[in-house]
Amino acid sequence: MIVDDSLIIRNKISRSLLVKFSKVSRAENGEQALKMVRAEKPDVVTMDLTMPKVGGVEAIKKMMEIEPTIHILVVSALADKATAIKALTYGANGFLCKPFTDVELNEAIEQILKIKLSS
Amino acid sequence: MSVIVLWSCHLFVTSETYFSASDCGENLLNRVGMFAFMFGKYRFLVISIALFLVLDLGVLVLNFYTSGKIAEQAELINLAGRQRTLTQQMSKATLYIKAQKLQMWVYQSGLDELREHYKTFADTLRVFNDGGAIESIDGGQPIEIQAVVAPQGLKILEQANPLWKQFEDALAPLMVDTLVTDEEIDPASAFIASNNAPMFMLMDELTEHFKASAERQTVFLRRAQIVGISLATINFFIILFHFLKQLRGRDLKIKVKQNESDQILSTIGDGVFLLDKNLVIGGQYSRQLETIFSTKRVSGQSFKRFLGRYFANKTVGLSMDFVKLYFRPHINSALIEDVNPLKRVEATITTEDDEAVQKYLDFSFAPLNQGAGNRAILVTVKDVTAQILLEAQDEQAADELEQQMSLLTQILPVPYQELDYFIQESTQGYDRINALLKDTKHIADNFENTLNKIARETHRLKGSAAALNLKWVAEQHHALEDNIEALREQSKVKKLSGRNLLPLTIKLKSNYESLELISQFRCRLGNYASVVGTTVEAANDHQKTLSGHGGEIPEIDGKWLSLYDYAERLATDQGLSLDVDLRGFEAPMEPTLTEKLHPIAIQLLRNAIAHGIEDSDTRCRLKKPNNGQLLIALSHDRGGNYRFTFQDDGRGFDYAAIRVELVSKGILTIEQAGRASSGDLIRHAFMDTVSTQLNTDPISGRGVGLPLVWQLIKSIGGRLKVRSVEREFTHFIIEFEHQSNERETSTRTLMERAG
Amino acid sequence: MNERAHIDVFIDGLSRYFNYLATELEEPNSSLEIGAPYLLSTSQPMGLDFTGMISVSGNNLGYIFVSANSALLKRILLSYGEVDLSDMPKKDLIGEIANTLAGNARRRLGADFHISTPRVFDGGLEPSKYQLTSRCYVLPFRWKSSKAELIISIRER
What we know:
The complex is a heterotrimer of chains A (119), B (755) and C (157). Chain A has 119 residues and is α/β, with parallel strands linked by helices.
């Protein structure tokens, strides 16, 4: 599942992920993302941090409550390291800096999936 | 025995503590891991210890078994011994009964005794033969006895059994009732007397036999113990020696490794150390770390406090949160390097000489799995100060290059003559400013006057630069003006020192340098120009594009022609539209004449656009043509008397605004301002720095435009007439003399003006 | 550090020296008056009667000259109670001032500046002898109405 408020980024990530994953869903803010996590239980979430409505950090916190075994990759620009660190502390598994290439994204997703999460 | 067991326990304890150095043993998985670990590397040791235990246990079991046997044997000896005694006691009891009976005394106690002995003997013998329970000698407790199986014992029993049979037959009549007849006692007594000794002998032999057998078992046990203990001891020493050897080897290896790592750590170029899971700095770190941080307080320090010495609290907090991520199992450490807050961070480090030094540092973190689920972080610190400063320099150089490039593109369209003139004019202007600075004897006295002069000079140069569309230079002049303005403000508050002027001088120097740069470009461009002849083409272009400016197009001098462009640029910037009419500037113009008039034209043009011409809406309301109408004309009487006219149909002088400005600057009182005629007000506008514009920008609006015009008119010995009707127009008419044979005009100051 | 900061360091050094004179010699009114700094092109003569020179190398290249007229040095010597007012002690004195400047600069400017030991010569300086920037800063000073100048020519390498 892709969570990003930018349509361009959503398209870019989904193009690149459709090679590996059978289903890729998209959300444009944290609120929408949480609804979709409840409904679809995705394996991996790529998450932007600065979004309208429910922001990235808040969304990660809540996602971990709903689905403790979900894999989350933060995909964000490096404007605010403090927010990124907070997101990782709350349960995100890794960080990918925008802008990124398809190869970087796929490698990051692979790395994320290596982590076995216990509930 | 117990000592050995204790040793082995002790051994176990030692080995356990040895393992526990790398073991936290918190969960079963770890334990399993540990066992696998033990059976791998320490197989020999474990087997030896197991063997030792088996030997110990064997001896113990044997000891237990044999001592049981010995105890049983002792019982047998006792029992056999009792049989011996019983034989005699039975004989004694028989004799006693016979004697008592003979004297007609009571024999009852003798009979009871005989019967009891008889029964005990019979029971014991039966147990010897068949095994079974029997009362022991001392406690009367029943004990279990095995049937005698040893051949020698059996042989004795074979003799004893028939003999006892005869005893039974002989004693049987005495066992029936309480009355003993002579016929009953006599044969029994006679039999016992004759057979007592053989039975005693047999029982004695049996006792001896049991004793010998007990002796043999004791000897066997002792030997077995000696062998067992010996084996265990040998095994113990083997373990000990093997273990010591291994330990020594390990120590040696550790020592070698230690030396190696010490060597590595002292020669490594970066600061390297380990952080444990409590985020405490480890004991081993590279010497470079001490150099980077100018401290020896490193090992055992909490990372947080260590960072706290060099970084702001916010950075430290963020860094601690970041480092903790490496210990979180859900984090993929390969994917968090990007958010490392300790990348190229500026640290304030106090050196040994108590001097604070700024350094740029680069921290990188690598998690190390130390086995058994333990984790540490290898931290590498690089001093990247030099690198960053180098980059900053490169960046600065790139900036400069970019500026130069933009300067170049700005210079390219400027015709060479104009550029030459501009360079010359600017250099002279800077020289004048510099001279003003140099001639300042006492800054405290009347420095404001000097500042005003410098401001005017700068403003003029700014105008020239803007006229040539040399934005970069114009901006520099604008910055210089900002400086002057700031100084003016300061001078109102406090006494200025030469030090306050330093920024001004530095700016001036950089302006000189820019001019030199332009000059260099000019030289190079000149080389190309001589080949191509761009000037002519450029001029032709201008004339083509300007074909809309009324019927016949006179061939206007290049420098004056550029006024069209300048006017249009300024007007567009202000959102205005203009029609400019230039008359009397047909080429070729005398350069000296142009030199005199061009700066004046530029200042008046700027003034007209900034303050005069209204926007389209206003003009429409006032029934004026949509485009502002500007006429710039030059005429002469062929006798060297010239008339330069500048007309606009703008809003004219805003007398009310000038009054307000003069009062607010403290030049006039309210009363004076009220009385002042329009002519007085215009005079003030030319004499004092008055600006009715609120915002300053590179075009105008510092209130130095008109005083500058007056300065310029004075410098060519001209006379100025101003006609202005509010909301209608402004006409500036300047009359002056000019000798066309390029001789300098004699500077006659004609202070005549009309309101 | 920018040009301004560099120049400030040298002005500070000079002020420091004269402040020291003011307190040491108990002449509190003898403050140093700093004049308007201006530029001097290398084609013009520079300096006054006696000049001390510090050269700068490292990331920045150039020279700092401190030049004073004879009267100023004489006044200072008199304040010290010196009786010999010939050229020799004056040269020593300008050397001492230059030394103070150099020391102060070494301490304040650090690694970017390698500062030489000062050299002293009679008269002003001949710009052609040195590799100067095309325009040098001249900071005129007055002490008890006698003149001194700080001439600064530094460029980044």
